[in-house]
Amino acid sequence: MITRQDNKFTTNVYRKACTTNQVPAFNSYTETRYLRSAIRSDCLRAIRYCSSVKDRLQELDFIRKKFHRHGYPLSFINPILRRTEKDLQLKARALPSPPNPSPLPAPVRLSVPFAGPCFYQLKREANKIGIQLVSKPSQTIGTLLCSQAKHRLPKQQESNVIYCIECSCRVEGDPVVYIGETDRELGTRVREHRESWAGSVRSRANASAFSTHRDCTPAFDDAKILNRACHHQMRLLLESAYIRTVGRREAVLVSPNDANVNRNSGALLQDRWLPIIRRFCR
């Protein structure tokens, strides 16, 4: 926040009127490192944004009271505040370090759930063999309820998808499929396929492969979403990849062994990419 006092501009930490000043409780099931980081972040913000010493001391006193109100002992808060100020002073005086000609390899890090006091013992043992353990915050009741109650669009209303429609006819025991992509709602595109297959209404899907594939019964109502992509070129590449894998089209030209009704293989993908495509799409 910028204010003007005595014909000078001063800066201070700004808080909204609706702020709750909530922080993790000291006795919560959280690794101590996260509790220290919360205090350190507020201290860094106070030092960087408060232009006067008076405002900085007031802000640090507010931080001290806020965390003490949530169960943090002053013997835990004050050393972190002093250490943060000292680190910033040393960083400002330090000269830039010369480039290291032989950089050390990146450490191996593993993310594991936080399991209370035994996590620290496990972390010390892992450090002996060169592995850094990072704790994952445990799920709260709020996150569990929100994840279950989150509204999801029905499948027919999703857009920017690569989809698959199965037919009743089979090739070597597997159902024949149609792979397509659309930037509109899936329900709209499936309805156009249905009208094209029935031949009753002329629509934008009249050129669909289903218009000449009327010997079987496509499962329009059970269309599956294989992948999602917002970029048009990425959808074309994914469509071609699924035609080559799910539809078992091993060549660009149509063959009797194909398990799909697509007229072509979509975007041209070279055969050398097939092993990677199969691994990605299956």
TrEMBL record:
Annotated Helix-turn-helix domain residues: 25-79
Lineage: superkingdom: Eukaryota
One Pfam assignment: HTH_animal
PANTHER family: REVERSE TRANSCRIPTASE, REVERSE TRANSCRIPTASE DOMAIN-CONTAINING PROTEIN
Protein name as catalogued: Helix-turn-helix domain-containing protein
Species this chain originates from: Amphibalanus amphitrite (Striped barnacle)
